[in-house]
Predict the 3D structure of the following.
Amino acid sequence: MYVFAYVVVVSLTCLAAANPTTTPAAIAQVQVIEQIESFLDNPHYLSNEEIGDLFTRLNKDYPTLAQPYVVGTTIEGRPMNALALNAPTSDATTGDLLRPMVKLVANVQGDETLGRQIVLYMAEYLASSYEIDKEVQRLLNTTEIHFLPSANPDGFALAKEGNCESLPNYVGRGNAVGVDLNRDFPDRLDQQHVNHLRSQSRQPETAALAEWIVSKPFVLSANFHGGAVVASYPYDNSLAHNDCCEESLTPDDRVFKQMAHTYSDNHPIMRRGNNCNDTFAGGITNGANWYELSGGMQDFNYAFSNCFELTIELSCCKFPAASTLPTEWARNKRPLMELLKQAHIGIKGLVQDASGYPIADATIVVSGLEDKPIRTSKRGEYWRLLTPGIYSVYAAAFGYQSSAPQELHVTNDNAEAMRVDFKLSPVETNYDGNFRKQKVERAEPPEQLKQKFDGFLTPTPFEHHNYVAMESFLRNLTASYPSLTRLYSIGKSVQDRDLWVMEISTTPGTHVPGVPEFKYVANMHGNEVVGKEMLLLLTKYLLERYENDERVTRLVNGTRIHFLYSMNPDGYEISREGDRTSALGRANAHNVDLNRNFPDQYGTDKFNKVTEPEVAAVMNWTLSLPFVLSANLHGGSLVANYPFDDNENDFNDPYSRLRDSSISGRKLNPTEDNELFRHLALVYSRAHPTMHLGQPCALFKNELFTDGITNGAQWYSVTGGMQDWNYVRAGCMELTIEMGCDKFPEAKDLPQYWQDNREPLLQLIEQVHHGVHGFVRSSIGTPIAGAAVGINGGNQSTYSGTFGDYWKLTLPGRHNVTVLADGFAPLRVEVEVPDAEPFGMRLDVTVMRDDPQHWASANDFRIIENVVNTRYHTNAEVRNRLAELENQNPQIASFGYADNEFSRHFNYIKLTSNIGEPEEHKYKLLVMSSLYDTTAPLGREIMLNLVRHLIEGHKLQDATVVQLLERSVIYFLPQTEKFMSIFSMYNANNSVCDPVVSDELAERILSPETEASRDLLLQFLRNEHFDLMLTFSAGSSELSYPKGDSILEKFAHSIQRTEFNYSPLQCSSSATRQLHRETTDRLTNLMYKLYKIPMYTLGLSCCRMPAHSQIASVWRTNIEKIKNFLGLVQTGISGLVQNDKGQPLREAFVRLLEHEGIYNVSRNEARFQLMLPKGLYGLEVSAPNHESQIIKTTVQSGQLIGLGAIKLHAFSLIRGEVTELNGANGSGSSSSSSGTTSITGIVLDDGNHPIRNAKISVIHPAGLTRLRNFTNSMGEYYLRSVPVGAVTLKVEAPRHFEATRDIRLPQAGQPTENVVFHLKFNARVFGLPRFVFILVASVLIIVGVVICVLCAQFWFYRRHRGKMPYYDFSLLPQKGKEQFELDEDAGDDGETELFRSPIKRGMTIQPYFDEEQLEHILHTDDEDDEDEVVMDMAPELELDVADESGDEIVMLHNHKNRRKH
């Protein structure tokens, strides 16, 4: 530009020389133009001090135009220099009235610097050009322009010239403490009090800017940024809070688009719309459609003031080199000039009263744009930007009558807005009557009322409330305080009573971002009622004292409080007042203790196997809101109880669940937040006048609780408890408060309970504000929901809510806060929580988008294919990829395709080290894409990623992968059967989240009907004997596994325990998803019980077929859980079972004490290997004809304990006390008799199970038949008075083959022990094999049944014939014939027959019978055969009735007798 100016100067100088008429004034003007853009000489970025000097110089050079001032001061003390340009007015009467104010702001983000210089250039240009440039004169005469070149001078000082992107950790983008100022403004979508709370931590630069914006009546504004080339207009965020690509338009969208086009269309680069790898139609964009940003300055201007602001991105490079400044000025000078003129579109005017005085804060309302009224300034001025059109406009103000609407035709043809003034008349206030003179005064001051009514402002009765009374009480409070309360039901009890919850907050019904949620739950046990009454009283207390008590007001304003008064209303209704310790009403209507019915981290039993409706309602309610802190109010003791409530082995120890008089023998089970829980419990206990003393209740004298608190498991075990579920599953800290020794005290005792518990209840609510809280946002300001926030590396995380807000309770001190969100890089920040009021600190976190390649390098051996351009692969592509992996890695991979019938239906790839070597010493794992055809496409993509992960890890010799493949054989089974039909559905409609097909594989497996692929898969599972199986599903992030086995449940916890706990998926419920969930449970049980395969099903995502691009996110979210599953093989025990000679005992087996299941050793080396979680185990190793051995071992995480060779001694299996079943002759011990001894032992079957009632007798020497006995229930026997020497024992047992054994008894009086018999099961019945017997018996039974049925039918038939004559009728022929022969051609003689009788060949018929014949027929013997009846008939029968037709007469019973008439 400065070159251009020089050329202009030279040209005009030459022109002046050539033209003698050119005046010196013109030449002088040329000289001035050359000086106007002299600021482009030596282009460079001015420092903040240089900006101040520049504005001072402009004020000195142009005192009537330029007025410098300071908007505010930064954190580091730098002034935020501003300049106002405004030409003096020639009208002394009106002055600068109705002159619109415009502002140009830049450098809000310190490293985006181009706008900073453009604003400075524009200020210099306008000031220096005013005297000579008509356009500039017109602009400054009618417009007041304010320049703020740097809103973030501290950030600019840290930025570096030439960096087109932000520095690492975004140094320079934010202010001196790293806060992005363009995310720090009050947001239009935030509640008012939330903005008020955020203002306490708002940055000084932001506060100064906000005050500047609302204090001056700005009409138009531009906010200059860098990093793109586009003009962006509001809104920057939306209610949906999508990351991008959805417009969020203002009511004035047409005005904003006109302004944006004004700038873009005049910019030679921006108008193209395809710069910086971005595409914007026409060079403009809606902010939310580009990317969402909350707390931005652009939206703040529009939502909180009259100012219309654009955000203008000037260049692709954020901090371009100074040498480019002249070029950028040339590009932006004209667009900026045209934009400033937009302040004069629409209408403007004054709003005055009838006397001509200005009305401030009046509202200008335009029909169709009512959502954005414009307010007048203190001088009554307004400016309303409008595009051309016809509008209806009126003015309104408080205390004045609204003006009549005026219809205006706006053209914007002139350079000035249309002038429209309004005069308003005051509202008439001269009403009849004296009601306005009434004055209401409170009878007594609030403090006196509080003292008079136990802290309440109105009389409050202390009484018990049944369900009806409680409901009435709550409805009355809701009606009295509608702005503070919301009464809602979270579900129904068994007997259909509502579970009522009262919410107390300033915005009832809405979660307010940044405001924590707290809950109290009472009356979980129906006969423990104190908590219920205390909550009813506390509700009334809070509502009455709101705005009359600073503490209560602060608590309600800053907390959303929920009270569930009765979780068990059915139990309450049958409980009785005065009950101290009984269980009447404790359980619900199904007689289930609700505090044993929640899912437990350590197991499942009969108490929590089926979820009760009250428990289901509370769980759904708890998971629906981001509760931070909670307490469960009980009775029957006086103590504050904190998690955990049980130990991992308590499901197998019923005695641990009994409450006895001493807690000294219980095992403590603290959480990782144990110190925090102790602090919370102590807060309640110490605020209580007696709880902290730890005094025992009368019925439990030895229950001594130090400081009035206890760990639940150390007191007594509560399996399936609510407080543990809140902590483990919902991320909510919960205590169990035992409020008194009596469960249902008398009503007269309630005032004392209220006095004792009021302060503790309030103090515990206040604890919800302690710790660290704030918002998690992306680098562009988008709130991130579901981000996991952890403290000091713990596994227990808190998750951010929908608006990105989170609360993490912590104790005072220094802590490391870790934040993890899907698709973002993990962030760790060290904070220090103060140990004085307010005991908490705000930490707003900005996380950066994670580079997929960086993530892949850190977590996936840099396999870019797994995270970039992910898509669904066809069946052919899957096969080709697996075959390729086998070819490239033949030493560890084997691809099964069409090798046999199974692989023709199910392709698979097997991974293990040293393919082809014996696999006896390895675990066998199965990973299947899914048992649901509709989830299989996603599952097999994850499975393919896993195969690539393991193969690449083995190539890199990753220790974990190498060890995994050395210890296991892993089969990967991608399901391909219905892929094409499902993929076609997906391609036809990508928005289909859950495709549906009939006859899913899971349903076919459960069906009894045979089907080829189903049968092959089940046969494969039966033959391979897998140790573990992993499959995938959708609809949730839950892990399904066989319930009831503590080892498998610990495995499940290990799988789900990840370094960073992602937020559980909150998937909407549907009938199909519920059906899949139930089917998965059935399949899990089938696999475990029938095929002995523990199957784990991992939920990957909400959708069964998410979009292609989301596959990478699913993989990243679940890879750690999948690796944890494979890592189970790293922990356990192994060993060999041998006899005394070192030979393998191939029929040996291993049993884990206190656990179900028997594990057989391998068939070759007699090896056993068990995957076990860490812990202490007892193993019983047994083998037929050998002594069992008990081994105690401790398993550590990540270690496979080798027990070596375990040697079993022959014939020494079980020892134990034997009960004699049959007494011997004589007295005294026969073993001590001369020449006799005793024999003891046991009788077992093939499975080493004891056989009871087996007969043991001595058959040699002869004559000792009296020496016999029978086994007891343990299979043990005892024979006494057996003579020494060689004897033969015989054992007989029902359904077993008998057995004999020769034994030599060497010495009298020395018992012979442990003589073991193994009887084989006798499968023969009546000498036949069982199967043959069953087959023969079945045939005989069937034959017998058939014979019986036939006999019954024959009898019935004969009986029926004996009672009724049998007639057989046929249509008579219509033509006369000598004889009617029934042959093959009968019926073809032209006669018409409606019916044909099934008459045998050769039979004759006649149309009627005479009496003689009829009598003969009726007296025919029923027992004679039908043929004999015909034979015995008389040869000739005479008929007395003539037939005139002359047709042949045929008798049914005698076809030989014919007669003509």
In short: The chain has a mean pLDDT of 82. The first strand starts at residue 66 and ends at 73. The two ends are 141 Å apart (CA to CA).
